[in-house]
Amino acid sequence: MNKDHPLHLLIVEDNSAIASNVAEHMESRGFILDFATDGQQGLDLALTNYYDVVVLDLMLPKLDGWDVCKLLRKQASRHIPILMLTARDSLPDKIKGFELGADDYLTKPFALQELEMRVLALCKRQQLNQSHLIQVEDVIIDTTSKTVSRDEQAISLQHLPYEILKILAEEHPRVVTRSELCQRLWGDEPTDSDALRSHIYQLRKALDKPFKQPLIATVHGVGFKLEAK
């Protein structure tokens, strides 16, 4: 796992002992974790924040894992890899989970190392499935060469302004909060409050200033988005 960009997981599990064991192992391996103890809380977090993988228990209060999976596939702006975590080992249950949009299935009890390997495999699969070209309006980002063009003109960006643009493009048209940007850029490391502002300024200077139509919009009190014409 890339230490500069740790993977962010949402664990939706109402069994505190299992959640604690998962936390101890995965955090020691460099993952960043959020937790939900019922299906509704898990759904709300998954739709609000960015996660590389959602580890989703099947039997949950308020909304069960099947309902959460179904609603995520309907409402999320991107495909979020979902790993179902359950005591049910019957084939019909697994088929139902896959039909509702689960990407993988792990039966309790499980080895923590296997959970880790399955999460990493889902992340790798997600990266391979994504196109290396992202286009929003007249901006094209090549994630393989890490180059950017706008209106067929090359745009030179430093590393962090490029990463900010890539995140905003991947999440377009959703507003990306300041806290989410900081989390994805710097992880849990303490960050100067002016650092993000400085990189946004550099991005706007390169991407918006030479053109008539600005693309980066500030949603005051929330965050930033790419704004279509």
Automatic annotation (TrEMBL):
Residues 131-228 form the OmpR/PhoB-type domain. One of its GO terms (molecular function) is transcription cis-regulatory region binding. The modification 4-aspartylphosphate is found at residue 57. Residues 8-123 form the Response regulatory domain. SUPFAM superfamilies: CheY-like (SSF52172). GO terms for cellular component: cytosol; protein-DNA complex. Keywords: DNA-binding, Phosphoprotein, Transcription, Transcription regulation, Two-component regulatory system. It holds the Pfam family Response_reg. GO terms for biological process: regulation of DNA-templated transcription. InterPro entries: CheY-like_superfamily, OmpR/PhoB-type_DNA-bd, Sig_transdc_resp-reg_receiver, WalR-like, WH-like_DNA-bd_sf. Residues 131-228 bind DNA. This is Response regulator transcription factor. It comes from Thalassotalea algicola.
